[in-house]
Every structure is written in structure tokens, then in C-alpha cells.
Amino acid sequence: MTHVITSLCLRDGGCATVCPVECIVPGKPEDQYPLYYIDPDTCIDCGACVPECPWEAIFPEDEVPAPYVAKGGEKLSMPVGTPGFAEVYDGTNHDGEDVHLEGTKTLEAGEEVDLTPDIEVNAKYFSDGPGYSTAG
Ligand code: SF4
Ligand code: SF4
């Protein structure tokens, strides 16, 4: 098992600072991999990252919601160019640095979204995406 970062992630970065096995990495390039990602082969399922996320984007793999029912106002982040994700998000991360994302969408209260496709996206970042080399 592993924990999974879903597309509710807005690159705050706080999760990566607490992971005891340093298995959370910022996606690069950002326009294609806008989230942070958890290396499923390294994650020890300690759960320390979950309360650190201001956007409640992290779930144990078997608890990733389908559907996720939106509170309203939270954002989903996708690769730039994804249809329906044309909003720009400007914020600051855990370290006070600027975050600029161009493929986001604000959810309406009660809107339902299946977040389970993020499980495969997360794993693929390490198996055949750019995380393969950074994960060592
Ligand atoms: S703390 Fe949440 S928003 Fe920030 S990088 Fe981690 S998962 Fe993404
Ligand atoms: S559950 Fe623990 S080991 Fe896994 S990513 Fe989160 S902090 Fe790291």
C-alpha cells in the first residue's frame, strides 16, 4: 500500500517536509506534472503527510474517494491544456514561495469528482515518468 496525492494538490509542499523516508517529490516539469507525487515503492504508510496538507489532497490508496464530494471553492489541478482546466491559480507554498499553476478548476459545493485515476498517475510518475530518474 501507499499513500496517494490527488489532483486537489496545489503544490504547498508541506507534506514533503515531514515524510520520514523522503518519498514525496514535486512534479517536474510543472506544466505536465503539476502535483507532488509519492513514490509507492518507498512510502511506509505512516500517514504523517496527511494532516500537513492544507488542501486535504492526500489519502491512503484504498481510501481515495470516488466520488469526492466538493465542499466548494477547492481546486483541482491538471496538466496545462487539459480541457476544462483553464483557470490560473496563484498562491504561496509552505515556504512562502510563489506557486503559479495554469491548469486548474474551482469546484462547486456538492460537485462530485472521481479522484481514483490519480492513483495510476502517481505510480506512473515513478515507473515510466520523470520521477523514475529522480527516485534513484
Ligand atoms: S501538502 Fe498537499 S498541496 Fe502541498 S504538495 Fe503536499 S499534497 Fe500537494
Ligand atoms: S504516508 Fe508517510 S511515508 Fe508515505 S508519503 Fe506520507 S509521510 Fe511519506
Describe this structure in words.
There is one protein chain. The model has no long low-confidence stretch (mean pLDDT 95). The chain has a single domain, classed as Alpha-Beta Plaits (2-Layer Sandwich). Strand 7 (87-92) and strand 8 form a beta hairpin. The relative contact order is 0.26. With 136 residues, it is of the alpha+beta class. The protein contains three helices and nine strands. It has helices spanning 14-18, 117-127, 131-134; strands at 3-5, 24-26, 36-38, 58-60, 68-69, 75-77, 87-92, 98-106, 112-113. The strands form four sheets. It has a three-stranded antiparallel β-sheet, with no helix packed on it. It has a two-stranded antiparallel ribbon with strand order 1-4. Strands 2-3 form a two-stranded antiparallel sheet. The structure holds iron/sulfur cluster (2 copies). The site of one iron/sulfur cluster has 14 residues, from loops.
List its traits.
136 residues, alpha+beta, Alpha-Beta Plaits, 9 strands, 15% helix, binds iron/sulfur cluster
Lateral strand order in the biggest sheet: 6-8-7
Q: What is the total number of structural domains? A: 1
CATH architecture descriptor = 2-Layer Sandwich
- What is the CA-CA span between the terminal residues? 20 Å
Summing up helix and strand content along with how strands pair, one would put the structural category as alpha+beta
Mean pLDDT: 95
Low-confidence stretches: none
CATH C-level category: Alpha Beta
General shape: globular
Strand percentage, roughly?
25-35%
The share of residues in helices is: 10-25%
| Count of β-strands | 9
The succession of helices and strands, N to C, reads EHEEEEEEEEHH
**Major sheet summary line:** 3 strands, antiparallel
* CATH fold assignment: Alpha-Beta Plaits
- Distinct ligands, ions and cofactors found in the model: iron/sulfur cluster
